[in-house]
Amino acid sequence: MAPTLATAFSRRWWMAVTAVIENLLFSAVLLGWGSLLIMLKSEGFYSYMCDGPKNGSDLNVSDASPPAPPDSEEYLEMNGWPICKDQDEMLNLAFTVGSFLLSAITLPMGIVMDKYGPRKLRLLGSACFGLSCLLIAYAANDPNSLSVLIFFALAMNGFGGMCMTFTSLTLPNMFGDLRSTFIALMIGSYASSAVTFPGIKVIYDLGATFIIILLVWASCACLVFFNCFVNWPLEPFPGPEDMDYTVKVKFSWLGFDHKITGKQFYRQVTTVGRRLSVGHSMKQQQQQQPADLASQEANKLCLSTVDLEEKSKVKEETQSFMKSIFSPIFLLSLITMCVTQLRLIFYMGAMNTILESLSDGDLSTVEKMHVVSVYTSIFGVLQLLCLITSPVIGYVMDWKLKDCEEDGDKGAKREPGRPRPPDKHIQKIVNATRAFVFTNLLLVGFGVSCIVQNLPLQILSFVLHTIVRGFIHSAVGGLYAAVYPSSQFGSLTGMQSLISALFALLQQPLFMAMVGPLEGDPLWVNVGLLVLSMLGFCLPLYLMCHSRHLQRLRDERDEDPKIYAKINDGSKPEAFV
Fold first, then answer.
1. Disulfide check for 293: which of 26, 140, 220, 289 has CB 3.0–4.6 Å away?
2. Is 262 in contact with 247 (CB distance < 8 Å)?
């Protein structure tokens, strides 16, 4: 049986810790593509596409290979299997498919999760991830015939990994004002999962067989399935402003049989008290009214599910999903995410080729391959920086929120001479502005370091790439949680991920242009992407203007509160006479 929300709340720390570990090992592991690519080439995937004096499993490692013709590609081997540019392009296409599903599937996933909760999706994701490991292990038995299975395996790996990531983003709802910090922690563990394949490559280099590693990994995915089955509830996690998990009672004597919790109970009891306090005046009115009207007024004292849910849904009703999609903040966040995703995905997919182009000189081909392997391992280890640095941007998003004025305290009287605390909604927008400015500056720095043709400098590029990848997802997730209703978080995040994934498909033609007409030189592609990165500053610029506009309206209401009123709980203040 699935646990209740109250039970899940009591286990929230266990769920948060295990979600971080599970994200590290099972979410976006495809982001460590450079290490997986080396292992797949070592196991002979698509090696039959390479021309050479030997092919298939008849190849033997030999120190004396015949010289290649002047006009043909140099014949190379890895672990006894031939490797070539055509093989790289086919495997990079498989990575493109998997990374596309890693983001594109989030739209239907978000809609399903907002309606049915994260439990079923997480169970499905862990099962798909385990099956993907089994498919790769099965294909490794006969890569000449079964290499095509890598497409299906990476697609299932991307889908299963995103299920793990996406469902974990709802857990921070149970941590109140620290929600953005925990969202950043979850996204940091998701981004740090790129360290998994480099770690597996270390085990592979120590002598463990590729198939055994994948079978053990699939069995670990079964533990994720069991943990979700035991601890994750069926219901979606409400936002902290919608529910308090600490109280769970059943009050049939008040006229309703459904269960309520925390803040909903407080609103309900307040409503009952207010209605009972005017009971005497209502009785006098009932004596002067017809019987049907009197009974209608008396029914207002009865409690119903509508009474329970009415006030908690005001915000969702005033801002529809379509209105949220076409809002300037969401549209500008799409531009920022599309540009950033293309910049980051292209670098990950083409990293080995970029490193090879930077290692030109007196090195032989074998020495270049060793240098690329070393730098790929360094890149994998640095992915753990995501887990360390992502909570920083979450802390920026949560800055001074505890000192802000709550929505329910706006009408409260203040002591003379005491300054009014900042508005919580405005403070969230100001924090998001700072987060996006900082992230985009790091993205520009990453683009500049990529342009400089220096191999040791790429370690700085690795660090900036890792930090930006964790920061951008954390900042966008925190922005959506702050600005939009919690019931739309999954759908909006899914829509953003789908559109940015479609835009990131441009990395494949960019990769083809780099290895083709540009002859492996990434300079002009990096210059173009650097110029495109400047569009990321549009979002913080708008957020800055928007926060100042809201603050100006708030100051005007404070100066003369009789001039402004909110009509029908709307978001725009209107004057009245």
1. 289
2. yes
